[in-house]
Every structure is written in C-alpha cells, then in structure tokens.
Design goal:
By secondary structure, this protein is α+β, with helices and mostly antiparallel strands. Helix content is 35%, strand content 31%. It has one domain. The protein is globular, with a radius of gyration of 18 Å. About 6% of the residues have low confidence.
C-alpha cells in the first residue's frame, strides 16, 4: 500500500471513530460512586519523527470495587478491552487477530496489517499492574522503526486517597519510540491530524469504558487463576530507558 492509500484508509477509520465513539459512549452506563478526574494528553513528535503519546486519568471508586478489579486476570481483561474497544469504535474497520506470539491490528482482514505487536508482557504487584506490547512492524510503521524498541503500554497504579471507603487509581496509556510511516513519507502535520488524533480519541474513550467497569473477557485466559506474586514486578519502560542512559 502506498502512503496515500494508507492515508485514505486512515481518513475512513477517523470517520468511523467519530461515529463509533459517540455511539459507544452515549450508551455507556454510569457506575455509582466512580469518578474520572484530571484526564490528560501529552503527545510529542521529535525532529527525527519519533512519537511519544501518553493519555491518562485518575479514577476514584469504592474500595470494595477496587479490590475486585485488582488482579492479574483483570489486567488481562483490561488489555482485551483496549483491543475490542478499538474495533468497536472503528465500526469493525480495525480488527485484532491473535496468535501465540503476536497480535495484529488489521484493516478488516489479516493481509492488511496496520500494526504487528509481540504477545503482551504482564507485570503486577499489590499496587500496580502493567501490560506492554512491543511494536514490531506494519503499514503504519516507518522502515526505520520496524523491529525497534517501540511499544504500547497500559499502566494502572494505586494512588493515595483521603476519602474514606474510596480507592484512587491512575490509568495511563503510552505509545513510545514509535516511527509513524505517515510522518516519514508525508509530513508530521498529516500524522498529527490523522493517526495521532485517532489514537487520542480512542484512548480517552477506552478510559471512560474502564471507569464504567465494562471489561471484556480475555481471549487467551492466561492469568485467569494467577496471583500478583506470579508475575514480574511492574516497571514502566520509559523508567527503564532512563535508568539505562545514566
């Protein structure tokens, strides 16, 4: 597919996202006692065309609901929810396919792989959970970024809360070290106003869905019966990168 063909496909996806997110969120239910606070967006693209995009929000919820959600199995369901929400809000144009070792975000069918990821990595403890997918290749990835160190990461961590009977968590979705093909073959402006904007809209919609506790069942069920101490200690990838550069 040529850059212009990819751009046309993204324009179609963008239209679907606008319609799909509006439909999904209009029908979402409100969970009593759950609040979303301080949603943020920090998206940057450097001189070399490398993207880092972080969306986050704090959520305040009843303590008993927090305890119910805080398991490796729920983190796995959170990961599944991200992909299913992506497909739903693009009205089925973007579909995710699973293998033992990879995940593919495709434009309708598997030959049209927009993004290919390694299978997810899970890290959890009593106060934090991280799921991470390494970006391998795809039509949306510039040649210089294929098989590199790009990743998509969801980080859920417990924060201090001074409201009796409540728990406060922060949910952060990060894409980092990503080399978008559109920015390299067309322009950063085009990327910012197509693919980047789609990602931000989808992520904010996903955060709303998490707050409403609408989590899908995992396809693989890898951690259905796992405990937090059976997974590695959580550490953000960007923290590891900073430590390694010292």
């Amino acid at each position: 597919m040529t850059p212009l063909t990819v751009l046309a496909a993204l324009a179609l996806v963008a239209l679907a996202v606008v319609l799909g997110v509006r439909r999904l969120l209009a029908g979402s239910r409100t969970i009593e006692g759950v609040e979303i606070r301080t949603p943020t967006d920090d998206t940057r693209i450097d001189a070399d065309g490398v993207v880092r995009s972080i969306q986050s929000a704090d959520m305040v919820l009843p303590e008993d609901l927090f305890e119910e959600l805080w398991t490796p199995s729920t983190l796995e369901r959170l990961a599944r929810t991200y992909w299913s929400f992506l497909s739903a809000c693009t009205l089925g144009l973007v579909r995710v396919y699973y293998t033992e070792t990879e995940r593919y975000a495709c434009l309708l069918f598997r030959p049209f792989k927009l993004l290919t990821f390694d299978a997810p990595e899970y890290e959890t403890n009593a106060d934090r959970g991280i799921v991470r997918w390494r970006i391998k290749k795809g039509l949306l990835v510039a040649p210089s970024g294929r098989e590199g160190d790009g990743y998509l990461e969801i980080d859920v961590r417990r924060l201090a809360c001074d409201i009796p009977g409540k728990a406060r968590i922060n949910v952060e979705v990060e894409v980092a070290n990503f080399y978008p093909a559109i920015a390299h073959s067309l322009s950063k402006f085009v990327y910012t106003n197509t693919q980047s904007r789609i990602h931000v809209i989808v992520t904010h919609g996903f955060l709303r869905r998490v707050a409403h506790r609408e989590l899908d069942e995992s396809v693989t069920g890898r951690f259905r019966d796992a405990q937090p101490d059976r997974t590695p200690e959580p550490r953000r990838e960007r923290d590891e990168a900073r430590a390694g550069s010292r």
